[in-house]
Amino acid sequence: LKLAENLDTLSAAATKLREDMAPYYKEMKEMWQKDTEALRQELSKDLEEVKEKIRPFLDQFSQKWTEEVEQYRQRLAPVAEELKELTKQKVELMQEKLTPVAEEARDRLRGHVEELRKNLAPFSDELRQKLSQKLEEIREKGIPQAAEYQAKVVEQLSNLREKVSPLVQDFKERLTPY
């Protein structure tokens, strides 16, 4: 019977503690939301800054690549006309002529992609450093959900990488026919 009384007393104490802690919890939750809103805005601002910094490199890459594709298209237009008029043997001979041009185009694309990667690397490192610094600040403040926010940041970086990868892949696919 004393055990049942003690359990009832413990249950009542837990309920009272929960009721007493509810305002503190609510206040802490509101403060947390306020603090993380500022962080979210700051991270968004940092991401926009990085986007603006890399935009000229992407534009330059796109312009160079467009010019290169146009040059190859112009160089290949006469060859394509010849291909229409030639027999099967001559078609095979023309393919042999086209292989070095295609290889050159592929190599130049790789060079442009590497140049773009080199140009974007400092911005990626800068963003990663800023994010690490923000996460460290969160850890120092004792915010218990820092790991969750770090995962979200990693996810955002992955999303950014996924957005840039299709652009590079698209350029590669555009080159393939030539």
Automatic annotation (TrEMBL):
A GO MF label: phospholipid binding
Residue runs in coiled coils: 33-96
Taxonomy, superkingdom: Eukaryota
Tagged with keyword Amino-acid biosynthesis: no
Gene3D superfamilies per record: 1.20.5.20, 6.10.140.380, Apolipoprotein
Gene Ontology CC annotations of this record: chylomicron; extracellular vesicle; high-density lipoprotein particle; low-density lipoprotein particle; very-low-density lipoprotein particle
Protein name: Apolipoprotein A-I
Family: Belongs to the apolipoprotein A1/A4/E family.
Function, as annotated: Participates in the reverse transport of cholesterol from tissues to the liver for excretion by promoting cholesterol efflux from tissues and by acting as a cofactor for the lecithin cholesterol acyltransferase (LCAT).
Annotated keywords: Cholesterol metabolism, Coiled coil, HDL, Lipid metabolism, Lipid transport, Lipoprotein, Repeat, Secreted, Signal, Steroid metabolism, Sterol metabolism, Transport
Lipid metabolism as UniProt keyword: yes
Compartment list: Secreted
Pfam families referenced in this protein's UniProt entry, alphabetically: Apolipoprotein
Biological processes, Gene Ontology terms: acylglycerol homeostasis; cholesterol efflux; cholesterol metabolic process; lipoprotein metabolic process; phospholipid efflux
